[in-house]
Design a protein that fits this description.
about 725 residues; Leucine-rich Repeat Variant; 4 domains; eight-stranded antiparallel β-sheet; 33 helices; globular; disordered N terminus; disordered C terminus
């Protein structure tokens, strides 16, 4: 294999570049090769005495959870035991102190393959580190070069069968696009006939993740030939190829080849997983041949609603080319399929409205789940077309306003929530008046959140009083939404109210409100150095990180006082359980029971927190407030709004473990903001890998998982420990 970037002095030069970008003499001194965690090879350094494995792992866990002591963890990254070194590198990635970059870079030369793979994962976590945008850009380019060099060295030294190579490739997917050598390298590897299946899978995943992020290159006929050969050598890679095509642009002269390849997958009677991604990929092609296949799927798959859903979702991504598929989908007997079709038509302008205009009998337009989808589709129509105000849309405003009025009288909070979403975009003064009339009347938490978001999105003076009342009210969620809305409004008195609220609402349960206030203040020209210092001194990490994100601008020499990611150790009670004793969980729902194997070795804090809340009965009666077919089901919010939680947050515990079908993960809204909300994936979701905490895996109850709909209930969660023969009652 030809070398890509094998230059002996490259690593040292890159580290000096990063040190210069950090702009701090103390940091540069700490990153010299002679210091712990420096860039020298392990064998060239004097080996200090180390703690026992148990002591070292305990120290690493404490530092990882507190997001501090990167220097001490860097020292333990040279521990004689590879288990300790691997744990240390993962911790360094999660702590996110750029000064530990030399230690993570040195890990790419570790003699143990598992350790090398984990050091690559640690480097890939740079996206979550406390960096200004300027530093993130320069560091990203430097780390990408390090990984390219590491892959080239790994292949030369250990061959393409190296167990560390998949980890390197997975890490590289977080960068891609900065250097064209990334694309060249991945496709060159993919063409090798002796490539192991696991490496092939990681390459396909990385190419797809880059495409999903808009960093991938357009696929040509040569690429399609490579994918065809890969599918022949390894049938298990077909769903990954479909996933790649679903998120990639294809050259015009390669559209036919791509459609033939995908149709071939469908003709082999593959699993529903492969079928779904193949159908969605056909929609992305938006060619006459691919659209014809989607139409035939809708007509011929009457006993397979999931296939029809995926066909409609594919048509949704094909925009105008899939209009006929979406129109047919409106009449589908499956509620999920019809709802997906309606959402897609909302993006098709006049054709979308003319198709939706007569959809559903009049009495059904203000009742039931499909009515919710209809209102949301109308919201999209207005949102995407109101700037140009075409005649067809202006003529539709009166009838939309009447639907809005009737929906606000409904007893269904989901329908009222959808009506509030429509009200946020409908431009008439009457719609603003309708929203104002609901302030103080809406009692359902989920619908109230939608109302607050609608009010915050509008500019009428009459609505400002409601925002100010929510800003200073008792509900932190409404306060956060109000802060976001007020940040767009001028006036010194608004600034005074925002700063007063920031000072007046202390405690971890008010962190979301303070974070939103900081975000609002960053958009105003009146933020003083004193204000910023107050924001950066906040006791909650997410507030400090919000302030840090805009601090220093593009000046590499400006330093932020203190590590903004540091936080106190776990909240009281979160350590109630010895996580390693926790074996499984039974999630009893209104549709049946889902059994989950817990993963305490991977995510001890998430498992302990989940077990604590479960045994307290926290999850009893909560709703699945979010269900996206073929993606996730989500629960754990006591308010049912998607904004609620336990009043505290836990640390992220990202890992290289992939999100496959049935993975249990923690929902979050930013760095270290997970609390009580969790989700289970319907299908593999590679873009979640390394970005969310996975802490369990479904082992039974698959049919229950697939039947869960939004609004279904979690009746209870029972935890089983290793020393228990049957589930213990609460």
């Amino acid at each position: 294999m030809s070398k890509v970037l094998v230059v002996p002095a490259l690593r040292g030069l890159l580290l000096l570049l990063v040190a210069a970008q950090l702009g701090c003499a103390a940091q540069r001194q700490q990153m010299t090769p002679g210091e712990p965690g420096g860039g020298e090879g392990l064998e060239e350094q004097e080996q200090p005495s180390f703690e026992s494995v148990a002591e070292a792992l305990s120290m690493i866990m404490g530092a990882r959870d507190a997001r501090r002591d990167a220097v001490a963890v860097s020292r333990l990254a040279r521990h004689p035991d590879p288990v300790v070194r691997s744990a240390a590198f993962r911790a360094l990635g999660l702590i996110g102190d750029p000064r530990s970059l030399p230690a993570m870079s040195a890990g790419l030369e570790d003699p143990d393959t598992r350790v090398r793979a984990m050091s690559a994962f640690a480097l890939s976590q740079h996206w979550a580190w406390p960096l200004t945008e300027f530093r993130a850009r320069t560091m990203s380019a430097s780390i990408e070069q390090l990984l390219l060099q590491a892959i080239d060295t790994e292949v030369d030294s250990h061959g393409v069968g190296s167990p560390a190579l998949p980890g390197y490739i997975r890490a590289l997917s977080e960068f891609g696009g900065v250097d064209p050598a990334v694309d060249t390298l991945l496709w060159s590897l993919l063409r090798l006939e002796d490539l192991p299946g696991r490496v092939r899978g990681e390459i396909l995943r990385s190419l797809a993740v880059q495409g999903r992020a808009g960093r991938g290159s357009s696929l040509n006929s040569q690429h399609l030939g490579t994918l065809d050969s890969a599918s022949s050598r390894d049938p298990s890679s077909r769903w990954r190829i479909s996933y790649l095509l679903a998120y990639s642009d294809v050259d015009v002269d390669a559209l036919e080849a791509a459609a033939v390849l995908l149709e071939g997958f469908l003709s082999l009677d593959p699993s529903s997983l492969e079928r779904c991604w193949a159908l969605r990929a056909l929609g992305k092609l938006a060619s006459p041949r691919s659209i014809k296949k989607l139409l035939s799927t809708l007509k011929e798959s009457r006993d397979n609603p999931r296939a029809r859903l995926c066909a409609v979702r594919g048509a949704h991504s094909s925009t105008a080319a899939g209009a006929e598929v979406l129109a047919m989908g409106l009449a589908d007997p499956s509620r999920d399929v019809a709802a997906e079709a309606a959402r897609g038509l909302g993006s098709l302008g006049e054709f979308g409205y003319s198709t939706l205009r007569n959809w559903l009998p009049v009495k059904e337009r203000i009742a039931g789940p499909l009515a919710v989808s209809r209102l949301l589709a109308l919201s999209v129509l207005i949102k995407e077309n109101h700037q140009s105000s075409p005649a067809w849309l202006v003529s539709a405003f009166p009838s939309m306003l009447e639907e809005l009025r009737l929906a606000l009288l409904s007893d269904d909070p989901q329908l009222r929530g959808a009506a509030y979403a429509l009200g946020s975009f409908h431009p008439s003064p009457q719609s603003a008046e309708m929203l104002f009339s609901r302030v103080g009347q809406e009692q359902h938490k989920g619908a109230l959140v939608e109302l607050a978001q609608a009010v915050a999105s509008r500019s009428e003076d009459k609505l400002e009083g409601a925002l100010l009342a929510w800003l200073t009210g008792t509900d932190p969620v409404l306060g956060a939404i109000a802060a976001e809305g007020l940040g767009k409004r001028p006036g010194a008195y608004v600034t005074e109210q925002l700063l007063s609220a920031f000072a007046g609402f202390s405690g971890s349960e008010q962190a979301e409100r303070r974070q939103a206030i900081v975000a609002a203040m960053k958009t105003r020209d009146t933020t003083t150095d004193e204000d910023m210092a107050s924001f950066l001194a906040d006791p909650e990490v997410q507030v400090r990180m919000e302030a840090y994100a805009g601090f220093a601008g593009s000046d590499p020499e400006v330093l932020v006082p203190g590590p903004p990611q540091e936080r106190d150790l776990p909240v009281a009670g979160a350590g109630l359980f010895d996580a390693h004793r926790l074996r499984s969980a039974s999630i009893e729902t209104s549709k049946g029971t889902i059994e989950v194997a817990l993963l305490p070795d991977l995510a001890p804090s998430a498992v302990s927190n989940f077990a604590l809340l479960a045994t307290q009965g926290f999850y009893d009666g909560v709703l699945f407030h979010r269900v996206v077919p073929d993606f996730v089901v989500q629960a754990g919010d006591p308010t049912g709004s998607g904004w609620g939680g336990p009043g505290y947050s836990i640390r992220d515990e990202f890992s290289p473990t992939p999100f496959g079908r049935g993975t249990l993960g923690m929902a979050r809204s930013g760095k270290d903001t997970a609390g009580s909300q969790w989700f289970i994936t319907h299908s593999p979701q590679p873009h979640l890998d390394g970005h969310y905490t996975s802490f369990g895996q479904v082992v039974s109850g698959w049919d229950v998982l697939d039947r869960i709909a939004q609004g279904d209930q979690v009746r209870g969660v029972t935890i089983v420990s290793q020393d228990e023969k049957k589930p213990a009652s609460r």
